[in-house]
């Protein structure tokens, strides 16, 4: 038995936040039914794509889901989709969408078909206006605080962090609502705006208070870790590492591994600082980086790594995606996080499970993304209890479609 | 009634992932008890700090929690902490830590006191070795793919995205385990490694398949959105905006708002491309940005915004943290996301609630972070049912402490 065995969630969504929420729940063993229009959703061809045009992005974000393909422009198709969303079952009746919750996706309309429906609606902004990760990120301060200290133009992130965080927040919200429904019998409409995810984090991490209480606007500090010590260094053989000393223990191990303790003591005396204090380490960051640079520059990666690891200092190696995949054992079948999975029409790739291990439940095997419409018939037969004749009629009328690569 | 009314979670954690997980659950109405050593945890003075040394970071990440302060070096203090973690109650017995799960934090030891304990242990790496957001991020490819296309040194992110995502993943995992316990009566040890969070996302978003199937290593594209069209532009009055056209609809509204449709048609003909296709928009990204640059450069922000909004194009303004706080109505008391909250010893600041709205539950008011030890006596009396004499004796022996600013 897996941790979420039995739970069923339906999805009408595209891009990252919604699909990532349900992908994460499918990876915990939930049954997830993704409903798409016959030609595929807005994200069906999203890059990166294979030479034959199959989206690696779509395959990744829909792993372990059932795909149902319906003509959502037709009234009959919409009725069918509503029927799947609101199908009976104590563990069913959960729905997520990032489309406007109007028309056939209106919560009240759906609620008339199932009174205790739990529906999560992901919005751009709280007022319903559009926003994407990119147009939220620019507004919340990070791009202007990222990159070299002497730069002035913004640096966008490549990781769609707000989308991902929004997805996991939605997953948490759905499970919280399911707990509430189980106890009190009532469903729920959840609204989650992508921009609110970012705004809340800006508050949670102290950036708002930094402006309001301290009157500070966080400056660019390049690759320095704010308020502690951490920086990147180049080794003799041209590799680059990040070292971090956030706690006093990490600072001591770093000093010991690199033998800079005496030089640090001299620096402390000269500058009137105490490097046991994180703020003083940050104040002296350039001088400290200056002490460490020659140590790394005169050692190969292997030599530096051996010393750092011997003292259990905290460090990491900069790798491209390709280096990560080819060289890092954490990103290989040697880790139980991954399995080799054949994705139909794409090929076999290293595919992650959920990053959560549950000691007392069965693990969910790493799964492929579905082919568009792969589970249309299965869902119509099993969830809606249609007869095979009814399913055939829907096909004949072009209301539904099955898998085709 | 709030969505998580009744649930109780104990925390022995520091920095971001663990505290953010429980902060997020406290913001949904759960009772969260954070146990710290008498002098405060490793993150008690983490920057940013006020002039008087109070951590804005700590206050933000511990909002809405109860703080209990115990001498964890003493056997009696550890016994007390174990008693709180394993206290009875159908909705209690949930615990999160990012410390090594050994000694008094060993799962088996805790399980002997409460057989159905749910415990989430956040690790650096799966093998138990140390890793921080910074030392994970460098290894998983993003810093070398971030920043100007002609750059070669890595650009670290400022947002601790992996920590935050790890925290929300832990929150989801805890609720999944609680659902399972309610149904089957069994507790659970959850293990979640920070590096696995990042590795799984690299797989989920298609980066691993891009290497393995396509043989590509994602290049740096500066502020261009990969596989679609999106870039930043400077306005006549020196402001900077990000525009994004991920879907065909967004592309059409952008063309209409900026009047570039004819020029785009000419470009399509000359280059043999079809901008209705996202991949072609990406291939022509520099030419398209070249078409749009003069449009923005010849308009003030207000003029550009009026045109973009009239067509509902998707765009955002680059803002510093200070501009966000001072100028953006989404980041103000005008939004129900925020309230003005007095944080003891710090002052009044704009403070976020949970970004999830639950239509059929009471909202949880935005909360302050506790003072260290503020709830020690309350928890000893209410959760452990000690007598006031027993609590006084623990104070006399220096085993526990109450709030002191």
How does this model look, in words?
Two copies of one chain form a homodimer. Chain A has 405 residues and is of the alpha/beta class. Helix content of chain A is 38%, strand content 16%. Chain A has helices at 17-26, 56-61, 75-85, 107-113, 133-137, 161-184, 194-204, 207-212, 248-258, 261-271, 278-283, 285-297, 301-310, 321-327, 376-382, 388-396, and strands at 8-12, 31-37, 66-70, 94-97, 118-123, 188-193, 229-234, 240-245, 315-317, 338-343, 347-352, 356-358, 400-401. In chain A, strands 6-5-4-1-2-3-13 form a seven-stranded mixed beta sheet, sandwiched between helices. A three-stranded antiparallel beta sheet of chain A has the order 7-8-9. In chain A, strands 10-11 form a two-stranded antiparallel sheet. In chain A, helix 2 links the parallel strand 2 (31-37) and strand 3. In chain A, helix 1 crosses helix 6. The model of chain A has no long low-confidence stretch (mean pLDDT 97).
